[in-house]
Specification:
The chain has 24 helices and 15 strands. It is α+β, with helices and mostly antiparallel strands and 555 residues long. It starts with a helix and ends in a 5-residue tail after the last helix.
């Protein structure tokens, strides 16, 4: 395909004024507006959302850049089809050497690898580099690692068909992008983000289990499993919040600069409980973990290796379903105590018997949610979904929720549905009053308020699972979904407005028990021992969900 006149004009204008564009004072924002946006519009992308698509269906998302210490912590553009991410585009000013400077390439690869995207682009318009991002980024990588295409602006007219064949919107829709990604894959050395992150947190569990068991000899095996799991959950939660701009960046890393890390970590936990009220940091319910002893030499490398340049992860773009899949595999193992009170991590008997852990692929979750939740809410107003005039609200239940993949999918569907309905029905009106349900983001886009996201979660999403750790992971995933797209500033504004903390407590929504065995299981028997009770864990639906069961159960 020959280059369109608009692209030739861009190239000629750039060539005429090249010296001016390469000056340090020619900013990245200008190159985006004057050159990059029109270039990708020539490739068929609706960069400025001229079509007026709803937020979840926009072709191009201009990521809200969170600046931390002068570093932008979100990719500049995300190109999507039907709401699904296809590739990132990171833009630098022409004064930066795309070919020689290793920093931008490493940053782009971290973003795309963390988001599990095969290819992404780095450009300053003067240069155009495509990277295969399936290989784990290492801080010592040379700038050329993973680079599969490199062009300069004067080559755009003659090689436009090459760019168009892969990155044009119509080419992506026809599958050309995916075929190109398959053809260019470098299988050697590739390791996807879910496998690497699983390996990482399994390493944490191994070392934490050994040290916690050694330093705290009075712990039972159940207390040990709880303490280790809860410590991992809290660290992951706070670290993800940092990369998403909800927490100040580097707070966990700062703990490694001095002694007594675990007590100081608890100071952060207490502050988090004040801010979030999430249950993860509830020390009235958890009377155990604050009294533990955990050595600095164990915690220091865990925390330090979660940050640039040591860490390959960008938690701001790590998909929620990837986290769920990692945890599903992670929960297939359990800590056991030997008679000498040494911790050993081994596969759960039921997992060993089943031949491993299996999770439902995201596209199947999405399909089932559309066919069930989608049909239940179709054509309804938010008020009808919430229940009015004596009718109960829509209640969605997963009675064996595992790490929460279906509940996460259902919750995301409801969030998208509500936001789109409000956008289509006088959004400005819904951003006013005592309890606004919308507010405008930095790009002028409409977003659900934290209070509305909390209400939707508490009113509509319920789960039960036999595995206590799985229940906690489901809560963690749902709570992180509430914080998606928020910043420390937006949460602070909403908290001061509503005088309430940022997250809901999900103890009344997500519960632990055997959904197939009722409380009559032990009828007529002598009082079973604690271990038997814990193993069987009968579930009393009427007692655990009285409001839902009183209204006829779940939808």
């Amino acid at each position: 395909m020959p280059a369109p006149a608009s692209v030739i004009e861009l190239v000629e204008r750039f060539a005429r004024n090249l010296d001016a564009y390469k000056r340090p004072d020619y900013k990245e924002t200008r190159v985006r507006v004057e050159f990059v946006d029109p270039f990708f519009e020539a490739l068929g992308w609706d960069v400025r959302n001229v079509q007026g698509y709803a937020e979840q269906y926009k072709d191009v998302v201009h990521e809200d850049a969170v600046k931390v210490g002068g570093v932008v912590r979100a990719p500049d553009y995300c190109f999507r089809v039907g709401g699904a991410r296809k590739f990132f585009l990171e833009v630098k000013k022409p004064a930066v050497s795309i070919k020689e400077d290793v920093g931008p390439a490493y940053q782009l690869r971290r973003y795309a690898w963390s988001a599990k995207l095969p290819l992404s682009i780095l450009t300053d318009f003067e240069e155009f580099a495509v990277y295969d991002c399936r290989r784990r980024p290492q801080s010592g990588d040379k700038v050329g690692v993973g680079r599969v295409m490199y062009l300069t602006f004067d080559q755009y007219p003659e090689r436009f068909d090459e760019i168009h064949a892969v990155f044009a919107r119509e080419s992506v829709l026809r599958g050309s992008f995916d075929r190109y990604a398959e053809e260019t894959t470098g299988k050697r050395g590739t390791s996807e983000v879910d496998a690497e992150f699983l390996k990482e947190i399994e390493g944490w569990r191994d070392v934490l289990a050994r040290v916690v068991a050694l330093r705290n000899p009075a712990l039972s095996v159940h207390e040990l499993n709880f303490a280790v799991q809860r410590t991992i959950d809290r660290i992951i939660f706070l670290r993800i919040c940092e990369d998403r701009g909800v927490e100040e960046y580097g707070r966990l890393l700062a703990l490694t600069g001095g002694p007594h890390i675990y007590p100081r970590l608890h100071d952060l936990y207490r502050q988090a409980e004040e801010k979030y009220n999430s249950g993860i940091f509830d020390f009235e319910a958890d009377g155990l973990t604050m009294s533990l002893t955990i050595d600095d030499k164990v915690l220091k490398p865990i925390l330090a290796n979660l940050y640039y340049p040591h860490s390959p992860y960008e938690f701001s773009v790590l998909p929620a379903d990837i986290l769920g899949q990692v945890y599903e595999q992670f929960l297939g193992k359990v800590i056991r105590l030997t008679p000498a009170h040494r911790a050993v991590v081994e596969e759960k008997p039921e997992v060993k018997k089943a031949g491993g852990v299996y999770y439902t692929p995201t596209y199947i979750v999405d399909y089932i949610v559309r066919q069930t939740v989608g049909r239940l809410v179709e054509g309804k107003t938010p008020r009808q979904i919430a229940g009015t005039r004596g009718r109960a609200p829509l209640r969605i239940l997963d009675p064996a929720c595992g790490s929460g993949s279906f509940l996460l999918g259902a919750y995301q569907y409801l969030l998208d549905y509500h936001r789109q309905w409000y956008e289509e029905h006088d959004p400005a009106k819904h951003a006013q009053g005592k309890r606004p349900v919308l507010y405008q983001g930095p790009q002028g886009d409409w977003r659900l308020t934290t209070a509305e996201k909390k209400r939707i979660l508490l009113d509509h999403i319920y789960g039960v699972d036999l595995d206590r750790q799985a229940v906690e992971v489901t809560k963690l995933s749902l709570l992180l979904e509430v914080l998606e797209g928020e910043s420390d500033e937006s949460i602070g504004q909403q908290l001061s407005f509503f005088q309430e903390r940022a997250l809901p407590n999900l103890d009344d929504n997500i519960k632990c028990g055997n959904s197939l065995i009722g409380p009559d299981y032990f009828a007529g028997q002598l009082m079973p021992d604690e271990e038997e009770l814990r193993r069987v864990n009968p579930f009393d639906w009427e007692a655990e969900f009285p409001e839902a069961m009183g209204a006829g159960g779940f939808d």
